Structures are given as C-alpha cells and as structure tokens.
C-alpha cells in the first residue's frame, strides 16, 4: 500500500527555470508575476540565478530583482548558482538560501559549466563554506540525475555518489533533477530509494519536467517514495523556445491539484495558482502547457 | 514496494473516442489512420461506435468502416454501444467484441443515454444475451467512475455496484473510465482496490483522459494496483473541440514510453506509434497534445 507524506513543500521555480530561456522580461514584469505567485501561499520561491548574464540574458537582472524581494516577507527566496563566485554574488544580494547544481553526467557538466562532475562535486566544499559563513543554507541539486542529452542514461551510482559527497561536505538539502524530462516512475522510485540512505536526515527534493508527459507521474512516484519537496512552475513555464510546444517544468497548479486530491497538504491555493499561471502566460505572450489553466478545477462538490 | 505486471494490453481508441468530437473524417482517411495504427503492433482497436449518427456524426460511417476491417487480421476490433439496439448493429457489422457503457453518475447517464444508472445497468443482461448468442464478448465500461460533470464526485460504491452487477450478469471484462479527466492516483488506487474483489477473475481495464495533466500518473497508479488493460489514443486525440488545448485521452505513445521504461511489455512499437500520431495530427488538421510527438523518444543508449 502506498503511504504518502501528510505534507509536501512546493518550491516555485517559474522566475528562474521558467523564465531562463524566454525572451528577457523587464524586472517590473517579473515583480508583477512574483506578486501573483506570492498570493498563492507558496512558501519557497527560487527567484533567479547568479550565472553568466551573456549565457542567460533572461536572468541578467538578478541583483536588481533581488532588491525588491524584501517586500515579501512571508516567503523564503533562493537563488541558483553554478560556482563559488555565483554563490558570493547571491549572498551579497541578500539571499539566505542557494541552490548549487552538479550535473551527474560528465558531458552535461562540461557543456553547462565547463567542468567535470568530479570538479563540480569538489566545489561543494567551497560553496558550503561561503554560504555557511554568511548564515545561508545550501541545497545541492543533482542535474541529469536520470539521463543526459549527450551521454544517454546516467549510471544511478553517479547521483548516489554526489548525494553522499554533498552530505559529507555539509550541504543542507539534496535534490535530484530530471533536467531533460525523460524520467519515468519506476526509475524515480529506484533512484530515490538509493539516494535516501546516503544523505542522513537531510531533506530530499525532486525536480521534474513534463517534456514526455510523465512529469506528474514522476512527482507522484517521488512523493510515494518519501520525497517531501518538489519544484514546479506556474503555467508549466520552462519549455525550450527552440522546441515549440515541448513542455517545461511540471505546472504548479497541476501538481497542487493532484496532491490536494491525494490528501497531501501543500499550503498552496489552487485558484490563486491558476490565476498566477494566467499572469505568466500573458507576460510571456505565448500559450503555456498547463492543463489546469485550460481545464480548471474539477467540481469537488455539488453543495 | 510497487510491483508492476509484466505485461499490459493497450487498446487503441483513437478511431472512436479520439475522433468522436472532431469534424467527421472521410472513411478513407480513417482507413489511412487505421493502417498506421495497425503498424504499431497494437492488438486491440476500438474502431467505432454504434450510436446515434445525428448525435455523433463523426462516427456515422460505422457500418461502412466495419466492412474494411477484415483486411487487418492481426487485430481484435471492437465497437462501443450504448443500447441493445446498438449492440445488434455492431454484431451485424461483424464485431466479435463490444464495449457497453454504463455511467455511474445518474445525471451523466440521463444526459448521455436518457436512462438512469439503474436502467442502464439492468440492460447489461440484454446486451450480454445478444452478444453471447452471436459468439461475441462484452466489456462493461463504467463511465464517470470518479466524477460527473453535473453531480461532482461519484460515490465509489456506485461503480462497485455496477461492476458487481456486470459480473453477475455475464460480462466478459470490466473497465473503469475517467470520462472527464479529473481522476488522480490515490482515488484510482482506491477504486481499483474496491472493484477488483467484486469482479471474480474478470480482466479489469481503465480509461483515462489527460485533461488535468494527471492521465499518466493515473495510468501508472492503475497498473501498480493490478489493472492490466489500458485505453489510449495516438496523439492524445480526443479533446473537446469546444475547449481548445484541453487534452483528450492519454496519448498512446506517451503511455508506451512510460510503460517500456518501467519494464512493462505492451507489444506496441514506440517509433511506429509516434508516426501514427503524426498521421492523426495531419488528418484532423490541428495540433495534438501528445508529448512524445514533439519531444521524441529519449536517448536510451550511447552505443
């Protein structure tokens, strides 16, 4: 019998993963979207990334955006980084929580950050030292945890090794990420079952894309296997602009619908999330893949 | 631990559920689509429905289409019916297998066929007698098994009662259908767990729509709960034309991808299914919601 956790934390990644491949939005537009997202009741928001502004122009306003976040004091904001230098910039901008990405697949690691998986794993020690010195928390996100666009299937032991190293090196949280949207439920369960024993009592999160339609099935399998933290993006924003129609992150509203119906608390309001997805769709100016944005909630009572 | 069956039978419903709300396709176009579907290796195809041609003009060519099916002798064809008269027409057209639909929700039953659930359930006896006299098999599909568009949530006991009655009255197979695409995994597991004990050793199938993004998650939960038969439609065809972008049946190629990756045999070829989805998309002339049709298969090896 499947036993689900009573509560799952959703981290809203629309402003980072959702927007990173879109045409750059003005900071003011991001703040409009942010206000709609905060109104959903979500308690964690990945607000931006401190990475190369030439590589990711959509997030080049990271420092400027950060100045506006203090106005929203019900939310824990975090920023994604790919290097110690990025971590320093995020901390200087006031973030109390950072995500550091390590690609489990060497080819993806080299393509993404110009370093091997081993080198990127070793850098966890620096990132943790820098963050902890500033009183900030570090989550290590293991990218291409299931598959790599260049190398094909990732040996699960590589993700397990990174998770163990991150735990040893002082990370505060671990997450496994299906970077290219190829994971499926059985492989999710298998990897969660292998990662959990090596991360002591650190919280374990998961990050799925719906590129092959299985995003919510993977999220459900992850939660059933004991994952209590999930990333999602309102509207399902995050598709690659070079693959029109290919969906991006799992849509927050679709995830909230599923979890609510499964009796799992998220603290996130469904109508407000659908409203935020509509704001995202209007601001980016193209149709988003969210199911709930079109279909709406189900009739839950006839009263 | 989740134990999945070694094999799941997929029934392709593109030609019936997929097309029933589309502008009518010429019979010749349906035969082109049928040839592409047969090439996928799928062993069961719901080819059409014998229902009111004025209510469902897209399937008004049921008898004409049926004459062409004998050419495909690797496949078991079936037809959907809603009344004893429809069953007689299907049998006269040569079908050896029929699906008879009973709505678990009274309001949907009355709107759909002008009869209460009780009346529709009682008619199972006639349908079975008519079919078995002709040497044909009857599957009873329990529609609105989770939710009704008018009544809201369906009391699960109503679906259990229909399943028990159908078994008692001689049905050869039972299926539970998420007619409006609102089911979620825990409710799927719960209903499967309640229906299985009352249907003796009859095969149990499930039918999901992806309207709220959870179609594959429901299919996975159903299979994990012991369902060994799933309906699907190439391209995810089957959305309501009055709700643009709302997705229809779960896409066969997305389901095949997920099941293959979970180690479950289907006998259905993935590239051929993606090709059939492309044929369906071309013939109906609008974009279909399938994920694999856009994203393609994952890189499964680097060899």
TrEMBL record, chains A, B:
GO terms for biological process: ketone body biosynthetic process; L-leucine catabolic process. Residues 8-274 form the Pyruvate carboxyltransferase domain. It comes from the Bacteria. Coiled coil: none annotated. GO terms for molecular function: hydroxymethylglutaryl-CoA lyase activity; metal ion binding. Keywords: Lyase, Metal-binding. It holds the Pfam family HMGL-like. PROSITE patterns: PYR_CT. SUPFAM superfamilies: Aldolase. This is Hydroxymethylglutaryl-CoA lyase. CDD domains: DRE_TIM_HMGL (cd07938). Belongs to the HMG-CoA lyase family.
